[in-house]
Amino acid sequence: MSEYIDLSNDIIKLALKKSADEVEVFIETARESEVSTRMGEVEILKESTSQGLGIRVFKNRRMGFAFTSDFTKNHLEDLAQTAVDLSEQASEDEFNGLPELVIDETIDLDLFDPKLAELEPTWKIDTCKRMEKRMFDYDKRINNSEGAAFYDGDATIFISNSRGLSHSFKSSYSYLYCVPVAVEDGKLQTGHWFSFKRHFDDLDGPEKVAEIAAERVVRMLGATTPKTARVPVVFDPLTAASFVGGILSAVNGDAVFKRATYLVDKLNQQIASEKVTIMDDGRLKKGLASSPVDGEGLPTVNKEIINNGKLATYMYDTYTARKAKTISTANAQRGHSSTPDIGGFNFYMQAGDYSPDDIIGSVKNGLYITNLMGFGADMVTGDYSQGASGLWIENGKLAGPVEGLTVASNMLEMMRNIEMIGNDLTMMGPISSPTFKISEMTVAGS
Q1: Structural domain boundaries enclosing 300
Q2: Fewer CB within 10 Å: C terminus or N terminus of the chain?
Q3: What per-residue confidence (pLDDT) applies to 149?
């Protein structure tokens, strides 16, 4: 790592000599591997490495940015000059500049597993074939596959700037994915399941992933389309996470400043049921979106976005925070080829007190959603409409598969009508949620 730290320092000094006022260098190196099979045959087998460097300079409140994958000395000298030249051509913006806060701290979030780089391709191929075999063995009606896959990779990030900040950290990921196809009476159903972790030993076994995927697709065979009704709706963890993702977009400070979100002017107001608390945690151990620092080198934090139904904060990077006359929430995210933008880390709804069975059992007649497709939420108005499929609930029991539905409402109305939240929160991705129940929605069917 020391060579990249030295490289960053050299580029910063070089750009300052070329008349930049402030300089930031972002370096990332990465390894990626992908293996997939379909019907027992290898479809993809690849591994790649990459490196990249981005330099952001400010001169007279004008920003210039350039990036490259060529780390040779002469090219980097030209890159620094290019960034300075671009800043001189840009428009002046009083909000431009590096973060004022510089904290040099080290925190270990356990994000890196060296074991992943040692996995043999033969093991990955065998794992994918095992997933496909298990899903075919699960039910004879599963007679096709859209594939099974194993992905893994790692990255090293370096962030340095002319204010004295210097951070580096490593992370890794591993991902199992399986997509069975089932048929009954000539009608196809497709489903999927996955396991996504930072560490290899935390992954679910391939047979378990395949069994859950197989169960989810088989239970949808024979699906019908019920009549349009206003009924309670229960979101399973996957579809609940999709809904929570709509809240993440709505608390983006840039959208708030532009008044392009349904949550504008809602700070410190009750926008959801008091049962709802939503967190953005950049420091979750082994978190799939965890990072010790954000894309500008500011220390990440664990913060409440919605606290017992009240909107507690919007999310900002340095630039947008200055425009809004507030401070950054350390939500800048970026890669070497982009400038910072606002994003979440581990963004999730906190678990509640009810088991999924308790929630389903509370519904006399309603919908349990397991799959969503289509539009989603309008970020300006909050209007919500998505295609849906899942299982119908009758007298507190899952009665049978349904499809061809559209669920429609408004995000604020939906959040206010969340009346039960499950205790089944599992961090399955950067955005997660437990099961939850909305008291009533329009479910459009036949």
Answers
A1: 223-446
A2: C
A3: 98
